[in-house]
Amino acid sequence: MTLNKKEISERITQIRKDNNLSMQDFADLIGVSGKSTINEWEKGRSIPSKKTLAKITDKLNIEANYILYGNFNDYIRDLLISVIHEKTDEQLSSTFFDYLNKIDALSRFRSYEESQPIETIQDQIRVREEIMNLAINSTIDDNISELSDFLIEHQVNFGSSTSLILKTINNYFLKKLNKLELTKHNYIQELISNSDLINYNLDSLNTDDAEKIKKIVDNFHKELLQLDY
Known about the structure:
By secondary structure, this protein is mainly alpha-helical. The protein has helices at 5-18, 23-30, 35-42, 50-60, 64-69, 72-86, 90-102, 110-115, 121-153, 162-199, 207-228.
């Protein structure tokens, strides 16, 4: 994940001020070499080392990941975008792209694709990559609030290991996929039930027409069941 030094510097400054500490007081508290080090952080020229972050979290009861990434939603969003784009977790990537395909996320950007000048194969590849990136990012943005709530509900937070966070994110998208499948199943069963009603209203038709409609309904059942399973 890419760290934003400017945002980190702003959070460090705010943390110091919230605790009514001068730069020198802050430096003394966490054992770094003077206020010049704090100034470097707050100017965004450098960031604390892991060892120093541990001291800050210990002395001020603040999560290191908050300093590095901001609020929990931002942290999860950045982590997920990084994992999906770089495909560093095979299981989560597979589940996420299954979900992406199931909701047909790419279709949202067809107008963008049509607006792009495509003259070469390279142009085509570039536009497809851009559309995929847009679909990935928008899908994550659409889910990030609900996903964060799901993680918190399962007692996953800043202090949790990355592997646990990714496993729980994977479970979230599996749950979303199962819900989509269940919705589809219920819809198909409703269609089947409604088509069954036709069979009870054929008395007013002659035999040939009734047989034709019955055959259509039977074929419709078969196609629906194939779609469902």
